[in-house]
Amino acid sequence: MEKFNGLKLLVSVIVILALGSAGGLVTAPQIKTWYVLLQKPVFNPPNYLFAPVWTFLYLSMGVSFYLLWNSKKSNYKQYAISAFVIQFILNIAWSFIFFYLHQVGWALAEILMMWLFILLTIVYAFKVKKWAAWLLIPYLAWVSFATILNAAIYILN
Questions:
Q1: How many other CB atoms sit within 10 Å of the CB of residue 74?
Q2: For all residues of the chain together, what is the average pLDDT?
Q3: Which of 90, 103, 131, 145 is the residue whose CA sits 20 to 30 A from 113?
Q4: pLDDT reading at 23 higher than 90
Q5: Which candidate, 91, 94, 70, 92, places its Cα nearest to that of 81?
């Protein structure tokens, strides 16, 4: 069993929350201007739901990353961490593509790549630290929903 490292946990959670919030800085001004004008499907959640959901998901991602980072050396540890970093970069990029650039189609293509890297992260994480993988399941579920929502908005607009 790995020794608990509070500093690594704190760094992991704070960095994930801070970088994840960068997407929110781009998103927030667009909600009441550009986004409100888009045709959205009936299953589009209310806007107030997104911030608490993403906060929970970023916290879970931060703990998951900590568990991977703090885990003992294994053949899959670097694969899991690399896949995590790639999916997280894609996560941040999606907000810029969708909300800042207003490129709904490109955002759809990008979120599909993000979904694949989240799945890959989970597969590798299961081989390193099962809890790190389990913590990412709600994230995969939410991004699955977000992918369907992105596709619906693309079709409707």
A1: 13
A2: 96
A3: 131
A4: no
A5: 70
**Model pTM above 0.90:** yes
Counting other chains too, the contacts that 81-85 makes at CB distance below 8 Å and 24 or more residues apart are 83/117, 83/120, 83/121, 83/124, 84/121, 84/125
How does DSSP assign 82-119, residue by residue? HHHHHHHHHHHHHHIIIIIS--HHHHHHHHHHHHHHHH
Instruction: For residue 115, give the CATH number of its domain.
Output: 1.20.1260.100
Number of domains making up the chain: 1
Does residue 9 register a pLDDT over 90? Answer: yes
Per-residue pLDDT tens digits for 34-57: 999 999 999 999 999 999 999 999
Residue 150 predicted with pLDDT over 90: yes
